Amino acid sequence: MRHDPEARPARAGRGSARLVFFLLFAGLLSGLLVAYTLRARPPRFPADADHLGSGDPSGCLRCHGPGTDHPRGPKHPLNDQCMSCHERI
Predict the structure, then answer these.
(1) Who's near 72: CB < 8 A, 6+ residues apart?
(2) What is the pTM of this model?
(3) Are 89 and 44 a contacting pair, CB within 8 Å?
(4) Number of Cβ within a 10 Å radius of residue 60
(5) Mean pLDDT score of the chain
(6) What is the pLDDT of residues 10-43, one digit of tens each?
(7) Residue 54 banded pLDDT, cuts 50, 70, 90
(8) What is the DSSP string of 23-71?
(9) Residue 15 pLDDT
(10) Which residues contact 12 (CB under 8 A, 6 or more apart)?
């Protein structure tokens, strides 16, 4: 029985295909996570006179607290530390 030096085992091709598939999947997943992170940012403060004051949450809640003219939406977290999520422009 002769040994052919250029012959590859049948399993080597399958392992390479799995590696390529894994790398493509990992790259796609990483890209989706980066896209989600960039899009899921909380809104920034508007650059108007009402929002240029101090970053004190009591100032925010005067207009955005319960029962005010511009209350927080129903999906807004119940966190009263506005600056922990929102950013100034």
Answers:
(1) 64, 65
(2) 0.50
(3) yes
(4) 20
(5) 81
(6) 555 778 999 999 999 999 999 999 998 888 777 7
(7) low
(8) HHHHHHHHHHHHHHHHHSPPPBPPSSGGGSS---HHHHHHHHSTTSSSP
(9) 82
(10) none
53 token code pair: 């004051």
Q: Which two tokens stand for residue 44?
A: 């920034």
Can you tell me whether residue 80 is helix, strand or coil?
coil
Q: Where do the structural domains in the chain lie, given as residue ranges?
A: 9-40, 44-89
End-to-end CA distance of the chain: 76
Residue tagged 């807004």 (tokens): 76
Is there a contact between 86 and 42 (Cβ–Cβ < 8 Å)?
Answer: yes
Pair of tokens at residue 72: 């927080």
Residue 84: pLDDT above 60?
A: yes
Position 32, amino acid: L
User: 87 Cβ partners below 8 Å, 6+ apart?
Assistant: 41, 42, 44, 45
